[in-house]
Amino acid sequence: MAVSVLVVLLLAVFYESIKVGKVKLFQWSLRSHPPNHNQPLTECTDQESTSSGSAQANSDRTRLFLSHLGQSLIHVVQVVIGYFVMLAVMSYNTWIFLGVILGSAIGYYLAYPLLSVG
Fold first, then answer.
1. What is the distance between the alpha carbons of residues 117 and 76, in angstroms, rounded to a whole number?
2. What does pLDDT average to in each consecutive run of 10 residues of the chain (118 residues)?
3. DSSP track, 80-111
């Protein structure tokens, strides 16, 4: 029983750290890919763009795609961990419930100060 409570506690800590990691990745994505409102999202023809501009646009699209893919994968992991924690709570075991609560508190305490760093 003690191992079960410890595993659930660690899952809750991991869930909180994933939430912070997702926010940090989103902040990094916004800094590295500032929105360009002057440029339409349509494809440019070869006559309108130079080869270096086209290569830069392709590089930006690739980085944006990879950033969005990473955020999506982290979101999937967060949802799966969240459902596991919810299922543990739905066992209606007091010790498991207390492990989730304590794990969430510890995860919040450890992870959220990292949002203000850097």
1. 25
2. 94 93 82 62 51 70 84 93 95 94 94 78
3. HHHHHHHHHHTT--HHHHHHHHHHHHHHHHHH
Three state DSSP letters for 3-61:
HHHHHHHHHHHHHHHHHHHHHHHHHHHHHHCCCCCCCCCCCCCCCCCCHHHHHHHHHHH
Torsion of CA 42, 43, 48, 53, to 10 degrees: 110
Which residues neighbour 106 within 8 Å (Cβ) at sequence distance 6 or greater? 9, 12, 13, 16
Question: Residue 49: exposed, middle, or buried by beta-carbon count in 10 A (0-12, 13-18, 19+)?
Answer: middle
pTM of the model: 0.72
Q: Rounded CA gap, 100 and 105, in Å? A: 9
Number of residues assigned to the chain: 118
Sign for the pseudo-dihedral over CA of 75, 79, 84, 89: positive
